[in-house]
Design goal:
Helix content is 68%, strand content 0%. It is mainly alpha-helical. Helix 1 packs parallel to helix 4, helix 5 packs parallel to helix 7 and helix 8 crosses helix 9. The radius of gyration is 20 Å and the shape is globular. The structure holds zinc ion. Zinc ion binds next to loops.
Amino acid sequence: MFHFLAFVFGTVVGSFLNVCILRIPNGDSIVSPSSRCPNCKAAISFYDNIPLLSYLLLRARCRTCAVRISPRYFVVELLTALLALALFDRFGFGLSFFVSFVFVGALIVISFIDLDIRIVPDVISLPGIVLGLAFSLVGYFIVTSESSVIPSPLSSLLGMLAGGGFLLATAWVYEKITGVEGMGGGDIKLLAMIGAFLGWQSVPVTLFFASLVGSIVGIGCMLATGAGRRLALPFAPFLCAGALLFIFFGQDLIQFYMSPS
Ligand SMILES: [Zn+2]
């Protein structure tokens, strides 16, 4: 029953994240005005704004002008709901669930904005860094359960420095050698945010996973499209996927590598 509630809660939050993905790149307010059809500007009534269901019932079309609605709305709502369910299953209802869900919500918004316009918005990553550091202090003073996702304040601070510093150094060396700007500044701030939320151990895991999967997908895309030159693939979604991997399997990975036998 509580799993079902976590899923429904996830769809509602996912619906809000869709608004963020749409409006943050334009600098619009995320609270007003209420949702409108991007084509005919007709206000969307509450019964056509039910997460997941309305998209299916309206067969992916606006009720007023019948323009096709992007499947992204459905994908984001479903993804957020499944992650809410998985986080609840993993951590139960408490501080770890709350902190990790806020973090995951930010990752979803960042990923889809990066896919859209190839920008990691500072308005999310910079407050995200501060929030990650702040949550580590909250976690430090409130006794949390064993399977906590919240790092110690020191680990959080080191994570932020490692995440920001490592990519900054790589980008600098890359630019010195090739003369072109490689890694975007947005990716650097994103990895600093991931380090602040998940602790320093998450930085190498996230970076390794993102580089590996990013390279495989990049080569796959080049072969599929026949594009010989280096494709400008958005990197943030891979970093976010790496961070998700760490949330669910990070403790196991650390124990596996740290255990003497
Ligand atoms: Zn319309």
